[in-house]
Predict the 3D structure of the following.
Amino acid sequence: MSAAKRKKLLAGNWKMNMRLAEIEPFFTAFAAGLDAASRQQVDVLFAAPFTQIQATLAACRARGFAVAAQNVHFEASGAFTGEVSAVMLTDLGVRSTLIGHSERRQYFAETDESVAKKTVTAIKNAMTPVVCVGELLEERKSGSTFEVVGHQVEAVLTAVKNQGPLKDREAFYPGDLTDGLVIAYEPVWAIGTGLSATTEQAQEVHAFIRKVAGEILGNDFAGKLRILYGGSANPGNIAGLLAQPDIDGGLVGGASLKPGDFAAMCITPSA
């Protein structure tokens, strides 16, 4: 599948932000900033904190946006204090989740193994995992970017392959976000720092991720796979990033908390 046929996806990661009273005003302002073309040409997803998921679902269903969790446990139930399972999320109507965000890896000791297990669990529960991969600053400086990112991608996709071929995904409201999963490349050194990979650096890694995906799950899968860029994406740099052939959208942090900024980013692909 060519880049032109892969629908752009802008995913806002609210992290540990957004009070309950802020949600409806946010979406009122955000929706007002969109145009008809962007609503048709771009998928929009919001990863909300667990406590705000129901309110976010209510606001998004009325406006045609999708909702994701920011994390999920790989077990269905059990003695895992503080964790939330995939079945609990699907009970609420959540059909997507972030997995392996760099902050989860850094602060909560998530590993390639646990990320792979969570990814398989999400797919088994008809959830679309948005799997995050990326290198640290010292790894980029040492020339290890492709080794690190390649290992992260291989761990996830090999685990998926070992579960059998990806089955057709049941469409979920407001529509199919992907044929099976989404990968987000987030250079860790660019997250929350104001730094951003150049468009050339980002494209180079995205093309590499697609190549690895093709080697493991086949070129048909790789051609359909949407790969997002996450790393201080903002209204000023999103157009250049989305113009690259292997960059299919963005995983947006800080800018997704500003309805005007995020709306401007969602309009960009249709401009």
Q: What stands out?
A: The chain has one domain: 3-270.
